[in-house]
């Protein structure tokens, strides 16, 4: 089973042994960050440092001055990793060790953009801004994200890309010294706290038939019992959405779903098309995703049939027990051969589409699967850092279970953050998977 590990350029730059050490694990690919959000990262094996502090969202390569000249929204440069092109330097070292490099591009998660352009971010029903969450319904944000996707994805030496947060971001973000856990929020409450009421979204709700102030008031009323009760809600993805419909009513919940799903799909199609236009043939485009369309975050909510109609595949969060893996992988199992080029309508139709004609799809920034595309990639993403809740010791068994549910590849988060003991367990697991690969047709 093809396996890739996530990595930051600073895990490789300045460490001459890093690439060979990774290749020795038995992986075939490294998904290497080219555009990333702020973070503080441990580097337990680097000969020159132990902590890297990426102070803000930035690109890890030299951005094209001509592309961004005169633009209000533009990517920031970084200065915490040496050299003019940390991504390029790391990608070359990985290639020398026999590893493919694919780009890892974080899109709608950018605290610096929100701090510098507060009008461009998600605002909840109470009027609070989320500086880390650009509102993807806003035309200027969508234009920026699409151009960033094309530039950050198609770097010299890269054979494909994985687009993270290519959709709605919301409340669930581990912000610096996060203090939001005092009242546990249900899945439905997380969604309601992530619904945007910026000027563009408010106008969108009104155009769909309900004045924005009525939508806002309904969301606030639905949330009020949460602040005193703090109770757990219905479990599972379907239970979360059923709870939203119960709190708002099916009609209003459907209006929100129509607007938000349309904005996300318009961004996703446009981003995938922009990457394909910039890349050579055979360049793979995957999205980090979740099969519940209402969910926000790094793994954006999607409809499985829709996303596999225009992207080459998905990367799905599979850390957890067997039931959690089945919940996330199951909806994709029978969708691998692709889906409809354009959904039929209603909540399934991209924002602004009145029909599904080829012209309407193109006008909304849509695209279809790459010509000649075969069955889609379904990559099961496992955390392999024990300190972050991962279980590298059970990776072989967990991977076999994921394969039985339709997973075609593995992703390992995160080779740079893992301890030596965790990496040794990963190496053992991948050798076991390789030994058994002939016995498992799914691999």
Summarize, please.
With about 450 residues, this protein is of the alpha/beta class. About 35% of the residues lie in helices and about 15% in strands.
Helix-strand layout with pairing:
Layout: E1 2-7, H1 18-23, E2 29-36, E3 39-42, E4 51-54, E5 58-59, H2 65-68, H3 86-96, E6 100-106, H4 111-116, E7 121-123, E8 129-134, H5 139-153, E9 158-164, H6 187-192, H7 199-207, H8 212-229, H9 236-248, H10 250-278, E10 284-290, E11 300-301, H11 304-310, E12 313-317, H12 322-329, H13 358-363, E13 377-383, H14 395-404, E14 409-413, H15 420-436
Parallel strand pairs: 1-2, 1-14, 2-6, 6-9, 9-10, 10-11, 10-12, 12-13, 13-14
Antiparallel strand pairs: 2-5, 3-4, 7-8
Textual characterization of the structure:
The protein is an alpha/beta fold. Helix content is 37%, strand content 16%. It has helices at 18-23, 65-68, 86-96, 111-116, 139-153, 187-192, 199-207, 212-229, 236-248, 250-278, 304-310, 322-329, 358-363, 395-404, 420-436; strands spanning 2-7, 29-36, 39-42, 51-54, 58-59, 100-106, 121-123, 129-134, 158-164, 284-290, 300-301, 313-317, 377-383, 409-413. Strands 1-2-6-9-10-12-13-14 form an eight-stranded parallel barrel, surrounded by five helices. Strands 3-4 form a two-stranded antiparallel ribbon. Helix 5 packs parallel to helix 10 and helix 9 (236-248) crosses helix 10. It is globular. 53% of the residues are buried.
């Amino acid at each position: 089973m093809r396996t890739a590990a996530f990595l930051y350029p600073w895990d490789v730059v300045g460490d001459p042994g890093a690439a060979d050490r990774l290749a020795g694990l038995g992986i075939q690919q490294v998904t290497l960050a080219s555009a990333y959000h702020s973070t503080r990262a441990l580097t337990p094996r680097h000969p020159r440092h132990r902590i890297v502090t990426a102070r803000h969202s930035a690109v890890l390569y030299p951005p094209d001055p001509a592309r961004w000249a005169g633009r209000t929204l533009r990517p920031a440069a970084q200065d915490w990793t040496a050299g003019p092109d940390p991504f390029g330097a790391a990608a070359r070292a990985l290639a020398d060790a026999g590893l493919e490099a694919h780009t890892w591009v974080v899109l709608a998660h950018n605290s610096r953009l929100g701090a510098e352009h507060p009008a461009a971010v998600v605002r909840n029903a109470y009027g609070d801004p989320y500086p880390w969450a650009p509102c993807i319904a806003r035309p200027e944000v969508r234009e920026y994200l699409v151009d960033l996707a094309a530039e950050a994805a198609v770097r010299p030496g890269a054979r494909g890309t994985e687009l993270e947060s290519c959709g709605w971001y919301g409340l669930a973000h581990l912000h610096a010294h996060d203090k939001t856990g005092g009242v546990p929020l249900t899945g439905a409450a997380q969604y309601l706290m992530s619904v945007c009421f910026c000027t563009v979204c408010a106008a969108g709700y009104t155009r769909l038939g309900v004045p924005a102030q009525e939508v806002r008031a309904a969301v606030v009323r639905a949330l009020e019992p949460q602040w005193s009760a703090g109770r757990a809600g219905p479990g599972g993805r379907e239970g979360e959405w059923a709870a939203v419909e119960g709190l708002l009513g099916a009609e209003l919940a459907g209006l929100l779903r129509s607007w938000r799903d349309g904005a996300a799909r318009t961004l996703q199609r446009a981003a995938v098309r922009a990457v394909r236009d910039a890349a050579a043939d055979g360049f793979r485009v995957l999205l980090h995703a979740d099969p519940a369309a209402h969910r926000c975050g790094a793994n954006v909510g999607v409809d499985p049939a829709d996303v596999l109609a225009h992207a080459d595949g998905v990367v799905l969060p599979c850390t957890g027990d067997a039931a959690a893996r089945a919940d996330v992988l199951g909806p994709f199992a029978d969708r691998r051969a692709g889906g409809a080029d354009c959904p039929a309508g209603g909540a399934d139709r991209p924002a602004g589409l009145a029909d599904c004609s080829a012209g309407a799809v193109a006008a909304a920034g849509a695209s279809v699967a790459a010509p000649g595309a075969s069955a889609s990639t379904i990559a099961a993403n496992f955390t392999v850092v024990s300190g972050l809740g991962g279980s590298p010791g059970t990776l072989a068994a967990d991977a076999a279970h994921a394969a039985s549910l339709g997973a075609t590849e593995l992703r390992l988060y995160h080779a740079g953050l893992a301890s030596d003991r965790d990496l040794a367990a990963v190496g053992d697991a991948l050798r076991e998977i390789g030994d058994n690969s002939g016995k498992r047709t799914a691999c």
